[in-house]
UniProtKB/TrEMBL annotation, chain A:
Major localisation: membrane
Transmembrane helix in keyword set: yes
Identification of the protein by name: ABC transporter permease
Organism: Falsiroseomonas selenitidurans
Membrane topology: Multi-pass membrane protein
Record Gene3D superfamilies: MetI-like
Automatic annotation (TrEMBL), chain B:
Keywords for this protein: Cell membrane, Membrane, Transmembrane, Transmembrane helix, Transport
Cell inner membrane as UniProt keyword: no
CDD domains in the record: TM_PBP2
Protein name: ABC transporter permease
Pfam hit, one: BPD_transp_1
Membrane-crossing segments per the record: 37-58, 110-135, 277-298
Subcellular location: Cell membrane
Alphabetized SUPFAM superfamilies for the sequence: MetI-like (SSF161098)
PROSITE patterns: ABC_TM1
Membrane-protein topology: Multi-pass membrane protein
ABC transmembrane type-1 domain location: 108-298
UniProt similarity note: Belongs to the binding-protein-dependent transport system permease family.
UniProtKB/TrEMBL annotation, chain C:
Family: Belongs to the bacterial solute-binding protein 5 family.
Protein name: ABC transporter substrate-binding protein
Record keyword Nucleus present: no
PANTHER family given in the database record: OLIGOPEPTIDE-BINDING PROTEIN APPA, PERIPLASMIC BINDING COMPONENT OF ABC TRANSPORTER
Solute-binding protein family domain sequence ranges: 75-437
Location in or out of the cell: Periplasm
Keywords carried by this UniProt record: Signal, Transport
Length: 323, 311, 533
């Protein structure tokens, strides 16, 4: 087990390294940050000064070497735009995004699982068909469009919910969370729903597909034949089996929720890292882009590891290999 | 899709095909036809594909030709007559004076190409790698799955931005960008299922028979991994189309003079508040109908193709 | 960061207590102004990053020696008067009795400290150093009088000083950009004090009760960054925001109809224009120009002034201003709008004349036109990608078949700077002084003189250069204006660039507020007041 973990850790390191190289080259290929950041009336001297100040006058490999040297000491560079450590900038904004992603993921499971279960157990009922039809809406409409519609309906027309921003926050352990206040919750509701929409559909469909399959399995038939209550059959035998794909996908989706919260965050002016990364990409703020991606990669690797570990718990047939 | 039809499914009794010679395709077709909804979906998709192919012949206007557009006709309401009286804009016009009906017909072509094309390529790449990872295990598995990790952690927007910066803006490049973003999903999903499947008796049996590896992979393992793959696949077509729309919304999608449905929606989005709904609404409807139809067919395909879901 | 929050909380409590103690009217108690701005503020350090949103916020916290009014004319700021006391010496008389937010007195020492700090802000991606460069020596005559000595006559000194926010020599002696961003030392003499700052999200201000100028109208200001255009408008409509800037043109019609909304607008100083490839010689190929079969032409048609004139005449600027910009633009033939210093009175927006354009093309040897690609950003200027499509339509109609290539600013600007395009759309926000666009865009590129840094088309004209050289050392304002007018007239005749329109700056607010619209696009809380009942 520990050998297995250790090896995953080493692999993770390799992934992070590979990624930082790709990002360095990628950002370099896209454009020149100084051209974007500099005031339009700066003359050539000022431009050269800015290029030197940001360390962009060195050859790319040298810039990368400097970055690596500092990264080893835990310094991922300073943002070109904010002149603050990139890591600190991202960590400051992480709680907002995590909150949003958690809310969206839990929302998706809370809504999707029961609906999917129902649709799977009674595949031919009108309710199931409505659920399935509704779930298609969830991933066919572009997020940005749904986001604006939500704002139009619930904030502008009905006035039930605040349109944008994060609302009141409470400070716990040095970070601010908004889900603990009524005002914060009301601000959280729409962006979380917007972000969850795709996932709700996904969970519904995966659950339904799983349930339909599992219900036909011999062991389920057997359990029924044994005279177990339908409740027990559903929630012990079936449920355990369908959890694998649902766990995989929700786990995966949690990571991508964080990575892809970009659109939702910018529409709802949610001050998370998604908004930071899109702003940083727009101005090619390389230190922030690199640091952000490194953090996200770490997160993904952790999530994948957890998913793999959960596999082995949920399904004893899957063994973690340590050879 | 038809390439995989009939493979690996055990022969079962089919009440619908009593008096004909039962071929795998017939069996599949008759099973498919059982759902009227799916049949309807298939019809709708066929019509949509036909419309997309015939777009140049049935559109009132070539929406990609700047010479025939006139900004003086911009944002006209549905049913308006163009400034020179030559055509009626049944679905209105967008900000450039582009006939929305023509725009939608042409947009369908692009969205379908982007959606289906990228989903198909991503599926091929992802499923093969996922299978290989699960079956081979060990180092191969580790390498592939770490690449998947790497891939999944890149925000699609950044990937797209880089690719489009390298290659320039074009429909092909958008497809490439989406494939690069999406293949990892297939790989991850297929691997997850295949990990379970490869422990099953039928694989062991096949291995005992000393069948070649590729045969075990593609004829035994793959068909049994299909159900989740089709679920993901049909959703990813939709997702690819939506992702393309999002990229367009962020200014990274297809070229602005060759709008896809997504770009039409993104363009019209800004006019929603001012009540010029048609610029965004009709392409939205077209997108919705397309995706619903694809999914109806996909759902039925999944049920029919699922070896474990036989009645 | 945490400190700033605690500080904010404490300040909020004390503000509330103060309001209570003074027995403020009920209306004053809820005097919070919620503003939504479209561009993020990147730093509270007034000398770190030259960027309009940063300048706007700096203007709320700090003051400059020379201020600018809504029309961008110089007005007294921390200096009450200024004059050139010799050919190379400027003298500024400082305002007495001004205090920083923390109670420190403002004196000439602070000015010296500030000018010295400008070139020494570490890591600055776009510094204010250029404003310190002409000053070779500073002389404190008395605590309220300072002299700047320059190497050569320098007429632009007062204008330069409108960009330099004054810091406190004691408070900011070792202050780093981070200290400003955290709100610890965001201390100036301006009308607003910073309560808290969450970068990329919001800045909270409270009124500076000891401000030397006109007292601000609100107790508190919530300055929020809402970058998505549609949601910004939606937040105003839903009442979550009281005031927004950068109103998208697509929402104008709706907001004008709405009884509960008010708009505030003025013609700005930002010209949208098309840059043309002057770099390739007459017998060279321009990268994005071919004949109708896609083969290279073997020459650069854009070097022929008749072709440039034809392309300019083919554009129906009125249609673009009315249809694409929905009225939020004024067609123009030059960089500066009427009424500003050195506006050229006899240069009008070129009239739309497609027949004449075709004739000119034929005269130049292109009776059937050619093919060209017009590039432009899609996320930088108002409706940028729509404008290039509209221009593409119009050019195509005179036989110049135009492909349109829109891309994000981050990719576009680098390529434009490397002269990769044949024609491209770009914008320029001018100072109200012809020397500004002339020096940056129309002058021949020269590193030594610092000219033509944004001359992405590489236009070059000896006469323009010589007129500009004279104007840059001319201290007599009427003479200087004439020189600048002559230079700009030549550039217009030569079609150095194809000017399209000057943008209108638009803000929107709920009923009950008024706003003084600024030509410089800055969104500042002191310009917003409750409307007279």
């Amino acid at each position: 087990m520990s050998v297995y973990l250790l090896r995953r850790l080493i692999q993770a390191l390799g992934v992070v390294l590979a990624m930082s190289v790709i990002v360095f080259i990628g950002v370099f290929a896209i454009g020149d940050p100084v051209e974007i950041l500099i005031s339009p009336d700066a003359d050539q001297m000022e431009r050269e000064r800015a290029i030197a100040a940001l360390g962009l006058d060195l050859p790319l490999w040298q810039q990368y070497a400097i970055f690596l040297g500092k990264a080893v000491q835990g310094d991922l560079g300073r943002s070109f735009v904010f002149n603050e450590p990139a890591l600190q900038l991202i960590l400051q904004r992480m709680p907002a995004t995590l909150e949003l992603a958690f809310a969206a993921t839990f929302g998706a499971i809370l809504i999707g699982l029961p609906l999917g279960l129902y649709a799977g157990l009674k595949p031919n009922s009108v309710g199931s068909k409505a659920i399935m039809a509704g779930s298609i809406l969830g991933f066919s409409l572009p997020t940005f469009w749904v986001g604006l519609m939500l704002i139009m309906v619930f904030a502008v027309q009905l006035g039930w919910l605040p349109s944008t921003g994060r609302g009141e926050t409470v400070e716990i352990l040095g970070t601010r969370w908004s889900f603990l206040t009524a005002d914060g919750l009301s601000h959280l509701l729409m962006p979380a729903l917007n972000l969850a929409l795709f996932k709700i559909s996904l969970v519904i469909r995966l659950t339904r597909a799983g349930v339909r399959e599992t219900m036909l399995m011999d062991y389920v038939k057997f359990a029924r034949a044994k005279g177990l209550s339908p409740f027990r059959v559903t929630f012990v035998h079936v449920f355990k089996n369908i959890l694998i794909p649902v766990v995989t996908v929700t786990g995966l989706e949690f990571g991508s929720t964080i990575a892809f919260s970009v659109v939702t965050e910018s529409i709802f002016a949610w001050p998370g890292m998604g908004k930071l990364i899109i702003d940083s990409i727009n101005v090619l703020d390389r230190p922030v882009i690199v640091a952000y991606l490194m953090i996200v990669v770490m997160m993904f690797i952790t999530i994948n590891l957890v998913v793999d570990l959960m596999y082995s718990v949920l399904d004893p047939r899957v063994r973690l290999e340590s050879k | 899709m038809s390439a995989v039809v009939g493979q690996g499914t055990p022969v079962v009794k089919d009440p619908g095909a009593k008096d004909k010679v039962e071929t795998p395709f017939r069996r599949f077709a008759s099973e498919f036809m059982e759902s009227r909804l799916a049949l309807g979906g298939l019809v709708v998709i066929s019509i949509i594909i036909l419309l997309a192919i015939l777009a140049p012949f049935i559109s009132p206007q070539d929406p990609y030709d700047l010479a025939v557009l006139d900004i003086m006709d911009g944002r006209m309401e549905p049913g308006s007559l163009s400034g020179d009286g030559s055509i009626t804009y049944w679905l209105g016009t967008d900000d450039q004076g582009r006939d929305m009906l023509s725009g939608i017909l042409y947009g369908l072509r692009i969205s379908l190409t982007v959606g289906a094309g990228s989903a198909f390529i991503a599926c091929m790449v992802g499923a093969s790698l996922g299978l290989a990872a699960a079956y081979a295990g060990g180092r191969t598995d580790s390498i592939i799955m770490r690449i998947v990790d790497l891939q999944l952690s890149f925000p699609s927007i950044l990937v797209a931005l880089m690719i489009l910066a390298f290659l320039g803006k074009s429909i092909t490049n958008v497809v490439i960008a989406i494939v690069v973003v999406e293949w990892a999903y297939y790989a991850r999903t297929v691997r997850g299922t295949a990990l379970v499947e490869r422990r099953r008796e039928y694989i062991e049996a096949a291995e005992c028979l000393a069948l070649p590896r590729y045969r075990i992979l593609f004829r035994h393992l793959l068909p049994n991994c299909l159900p989740p793959l089709i679920v993901i696949g049909t959703m990813q077509v939709a997702r690819a189309i939506a992702l393309e729309a999002t990229l367009s919304f962020l200014g990274l999608g297809v070229p602005i003079t060759e709008p896809s449905l997504g770009l039409l929606i993104a363009n019209g989005y800004e006019y929603m508040l001012s009540g010029k709904y048609w610029i965004s609404f009709y392409p939205g409807i077209a997108l919705l109908v397309t995706i619903v139809a694809i999914n109806l067919v996909g759902d039925q395909l999944r049920d029919v193709l699922n070896p474990r879901l036989q009645k | 960061m945490r400190d700033s929050i605690r500080m904010a909380a404490a300040a909020a409590v004390s503000a509330a207590a103060m309001a209570g103690a003074l027995g403020a009217s009920p209306a004053a108690a809820q005097q919070v102004l919620n503003m939504g701005v479209g561009s993020p503020v990147t730093s509270l350090d007034p000398h770190y990053h030259q960027l309009s949103p940063n300048n706007a916020v700096s203007d709320m916290i700090f003051d400059k020696l020379v201020g600018t009014d809504a029309a961008a004319r110089n007005i007294p700021g921390l200096a009450t008067e200024w004059r050139a006391v010799g050919p190379t010496t400027w003298e500024f008389k400082l305002r007495p009795g001004v205090k920083f937010h923390n109670g420190n007195d403002f004196t000439a020492e602070d000015v010296v400290f500030t000018i010295q700090r400008l070139p020494n802000v570490p890591n600055s991606p776009s510094s204010y150093a250029a404003y310190a460069r002409p000053i070779v020596r500073m002389e404190i005559v008395d605590p309220l009088t300072i002299r700047f000595h320059t190497a050569a006559p320098y007429p632009l000194m007062p204008m330069d000083m409108t960009n330099v926010r004054i810091l406190d020599a004691t408070t900011h002696a070792n202050a780093a950009t981070e200290d400003f961003n955290a709100g610890r030392v965001a201390i100036g003499t301006g009308p607003w004090r910073v309560l808290s700052h969450r970068s990329g999200d919001r800045i909270e201000f409270e009124r500076n009760p000891n401000f030397w100028g006109e007292a601000p109208a609100f107790q508190r200001v919530n300055y929020r960054m809402v970058t998505n255009d549609a949601t910004r408008t939606a937040s105003l409509l839903s009442g979550d925001l009281d005031f927004i800037d950068q109103v998208p043109t697509s929402d104008l019609a709706r907001l004008r109809r709405d009884q509960n909304m008010r708009l505030s607008e003025t013609v700005g100083l930002r010209l949208i224009f098309l840059g043309l490839d002057h770099l390739r010689a007459e017998n060279e190929n321009s990268p994005f120009i071919t004949d109708h079969e896609g083969k290279p032409l073997g020459r650069n048609p854009l070097r022929d002034v008749r072709v440039r004139r034809a392309l300019s005449m083919a554009i129906d600027r009125k249609a673009i201003a009315e249809r694409v910009m929905e009225g939020a633009a004024t067609p123009s033939g030059q960089f500066l709008p009427p009424g500003t210093f050195s506006h050229v009175p006899d240069v009008q927006a070129p009239a739309y004349n497609p027949d004449m354009a075709r004739r000119l093309l034929a005269e130049a040897g292109y009776p059937n036109g050619f093919r060209i690609t017009l590039a432009g950003p899609n996320d930088r200027y108002i409706n940028d990608s729509r404008i290039i499509q509209a221009v593409g339509q119009m050019w195509t109609r005179i036989g110049v078949r135009t492909a349109v290539e829109a891309q994000t600013w981050s990719t576009f600007v680098g390529r434009a700077g490397r002269q990769e395009f044949s024609s491209f759309l770009i914008g320029w926000g001018s100072n109200p002084d012809g020397s500004h666009p002339l020096r940056n865009i129309l002058a021949t590129v020269s590193r030594e003189r610092g000219w033509g840094a944004s001359n992405r088309g590489r236009f070059s004209n000896a006469e323009v250069d010589s007129l500009l050289t004279q104007a840059l050392v001319e201290l007599d304002e009427p003479k200087r204006e004439q020189l600048l007018i002559r230079a700009q007239r030549i550039a217009a005749e030569q079609v150095a660039v194809i000017p399209l329109h000057i943008q209108t700056n638009i803000w929107a607010m709920r009923r009950g507020l008024t706003h003084t619209p600024r030509v410089d696009e800055l969104t500042r809380a002191q310009d917003v007041r409750p409307a007279a009942q």
